[in-house]
Amino acid sequence: AMDGAPPPTSPTGLSAYVAISQLLGLTLLATTGAWLGRYRGGMAWHSPLQFNTHPLCMVLGMVFLQGDALLVYRVFRHEAKRSTKALHALLHGLALIIALVGIIAVFDSHRTKGIPNMYSLHSWCGMATFVLYLLQWLLGCGFFLFPGASFLLRGRYKPQHIFFGIALFILSITSCLLGITEMLLFKISDSYSHFVPEGILANILGVLLVTFGLVVGYVLTREEWKRVPLAEELALSMDFKTLTEGESPGG
Q1: Could you tell me where the DSSP H helices lie in the chain?
Q2: Transmembrane stretches, by residue range (predicted)?
């Protein structure tokens, strides 16, 4: 910024919606912890409670952190693009690690208890989402974070990267909703229809998941809230295109 110029500001309403998303995300985690702690006995790795690590890890990684990673380009609008990319990739990578812990927990718990794996709709959708999410992260790092990909390839892949980013976020929330329903039917199938407290709390968790997804989706799809490239970024993009595509600066 030039000396004496006013500091850049966020578009009207953006900060409020981002704050609402974070409040919803923290409430999501607290509600998940309350459900598992109050009604499912808590969590412990080497015990019959190991399974309970799975839902908390998936909500934390595949929903909350993934949502925050998607919001990075809206929140850090005036930071250097390279730093924003690195934070975007870091949050997605952290979400993958936490989700992997959750997947290991459920497979380990099933093996200990003699329960079969990968037979339910929740497990199919959840595993497909995780594998695609890992692939999306690897491709994103390859095309945008590390040097080597040409300007033309980046431009062609970017729309697919954006689409699958939002699609995988939706799939993650859908898989969590399927998992909540499956767990309730397994654990309290006899009393679920009687509006027992555990069922109500789990339903509230589902509503919070949907609401968090809607708020994040709204922020991502507001055209006027998209990050505007800085002047130096536009200049660097033109130089990069000239070097990689062999175009002249005046072409």
Answers
A1: 14-39, 53-58, 66-75, 81-113, 121-140, 151-188, 197-221, 231-245
A2: 12-36, 56-76, 88-107, 127-149, 161-180, 200-220
Q: Which residue has the tokens 């850049």?
A: 8
- Cα 118 to its chain centre, rounded Å, is 23
The angle, 0 to 180 degrees and rounded to 10, between the axes of the packed helices 81-113 and 121-140 is: 150
CA distance 143 to 137: 10
What is the distance, to the nearest Å, from the Cα of residue 189 to the centroid of all Cα atoms in its chain?
A: 30
Could you tell me which of 207, 213, 215, 172 has the C-alpha nearest to residue 62?
172
Q: Using alpha carbons, select from 21, 108, 105 the residue that is nearest to residue 65.
A: 21
Q: Which sequence spans correspond to the domains of the chain?
A: 18-223
CATH 1.20.900.10 correct for 18-223: no
User: What pTM did the predictor assign?
Assistant: 0.88
* pLDDT of 38 above 60: yes
172-199 tens-digit pLDDT: 999 999 999 999 999 999 999 999 999 9
Query: What is the amino acid identity at position 115?
Result: I
